[in-house]
Amino acid sequence: MTKTIILAGITGLTALIMSSLSVHAIRPMLIVNGSFESFSTAQRILMSQSILAIVAATLGHYFGIKLFHYAGIGFLLGSLLFAITIVR
């Protein structure tokens, strides 16, 4: 559970950094390249899936069901793979 929450926190931090960069630092570059929408979508997906992974890990710990832990890992892996493909 702890590893899943730490990994979800790192993923959430990555999404937060992406959000800050897309709003302030690299927004003009993203708009010129036409990739602002896809970058924003990837950021939102990372943030929502990291929150879901934290919820799944917490529920797994609370109820003692190992399947929630695997669901949290699945949320994180799926969101990272999807975010990578959408930004490319």
Shape: elongated
Quickly count the helices: 4
Structural class: mainly alpha
Uncertain parts: none
**Head-to-tail CA distance between termini:** 31 Å
* Largest sheet: number of strands, sense, barrel closure: none
Number of domains: 1
As a percent range, the share of strand residues is: under 5%
In brief:
The chain is mostly helical and 88 residues long. It has helices at 2-25, 27-33, 36-63, 66-87. Helix 1 packs antiparallel against helix 3 and helix 3 runs antiparallel to helix 4 (66-87).
Helix and strand topology:
Layout (H helix, E strand, L loop, with lengths): L1 H24 L1 H7 L2 H28 L2 H22 L1
Helix pairs in contact: 1-3, 1-4, 3-4
Plain-language structure description:
This protein has 88 residues and is mainly α. It has one domain (2-87). Helices cover 92% and strands 0% of the residues. It contains four helices and no strands. It has helices spanning 2-25, 27-33, 36-63, 66-87. Helix 3 runs antiparallel to helix 4. The longest helix has 28 residues, at 36-63. The chain is elongated, with a radius of gyration of 14 Å. The mean pLDDT is 83.
Give structural attributes.
elongated, mainly alpha, 88 residues
